[in-house]
Amino acid sequence: MSGNSLDFPARLRAAGLRPTRQRVALARVLFEAGHRHVTAESLHAEVKASRMSVSLATVYNALNQFRDAGLLREVVVAPGRSYFDTNTGHHHHFYIEPDGELHDFPSEKVTIAGLPTPPKGTRLSRVDVIVRVRR
Amino acid sequence: MSGNSLDFPARLRAAGLRPTRQRVALARVLFEAGHRHVTAESLHAEVKASRMSVSLATVYNALNQFRDAGLLREVVVAPGRSYFDTNTGHHHHFYIEPDGELHDFPSEKVTIAGLPTPPKGTRLSRVDVIVRVRR
DNA sequence: GCAAGTTTTAGAATAGTTCTAATCTTCTTG
DNA sequence: CAAGAAGATTAGAACTATTCTAAAACTTGC
Ligand SMILES: [Mn+2]
Ligand SMILES: [Mn+2]
Ligand SMILES: [Zn+2]
Ligand SMILES: [Zn+2]
To answer: Which residues lie across from B126 on neighbouring strands?
Structure first.
């Protein structure tokens, strides 16, 4: 009884999205294995290799819709490209600079103490920790 | 006896850069007041308003050279644009999401405990903390 | 099955950034 | 301080990631 069933049409419907062939194919690639970090281009290449072809515009549309629906989270670590993360829970990232690889690490064991209060008139939205490493 | 004198030609030379008219004008705008966070476009607009005109290509060249020389640091917080930061010391950022504003906060009072060790074959390069807030 | 609303798509458009190559400036050397 | 070499600036073209447009193809509820 996992909250993340493999019935992708149902999961899309639950998120308020019509389960079109393209969205189901993308959801399958994104969610059927463990957590993933993809770019629009990498996902497009992957889904193309998996028989069903989906246009790049649709990949961008789906990634933005999935993010807006809370199925994905967007991660900005490098100028010029966005990553989309199937892990929507609290966690942080290693970013391996030369190859552009992202790895999760849990936020549970990490303690951030002494953060100042947000500037006047603002509310906290999210705290991102990016540990940049090189080979 | 500040390490950051207002003799911009000398500072540029010390960084291994020829003190051309354009670079001196940009350095003045960037470094003569306190710490700043600029984008290429915002710096271009600012320097244009200050009498001397500098092409956008030169602004990009100078920002990249200043960063490579250690005079600036590049901050990636939003998809599609880079910020350049005149504060090159250890510190972290508030990012005010709707308006794209960046504010520093010192890393001295912030303690990050329990960070996992970098993946095999990698060395730590930098830890970025971005506190995203909205109005 | 049909109509009504949605989605997909190819290709055009846009935004931020980098590149090209001609011109101009700065520096070195005599 | 003049001349030449090396380096910098610039306009505009090119490039990359992403979004937009509008026409054709789907999905859905009846
Ligand atoms: Mn987006
Ligand atoms: Mn750059
Ligand atoms: Zn992640
Ligand atoms: Zn800063």
So the answer is: A132
Count CB atoms within 10 A of the CB of residue B94.
21
State the pairing for strand pair B123-134/B91-96.
parallel
Q: What is the pTM of this model?
A: 0.90
| Cα–Cα distance for residue pair B42/B62, rounded to 1 Å | 14
Q: Which of A83, A112, A127 to mutate to test the interface with B (most CBs of B within 10 A)?
A: A112
pLDDT at A50 over 70: yes
Strand partners, B130: A128, B93
Helix axes B21-31, B40-49, angle to 10 degrees: 100
CA of A23: nearest nucleotide by C1' is C7
Q: Give me the half-sphere count of Cα atoms (radius 13 Å) on the Cβ side of residue A130.
A: 22
B68-104: per-residue pLDDT in tens? 999 999 999 999 999 999 999 999 999 998 889 999 9
The correct answer on CATH 2.60.40.10 for the domain covering A8-134 is no
Domain residue ranges in chain B: 8-134
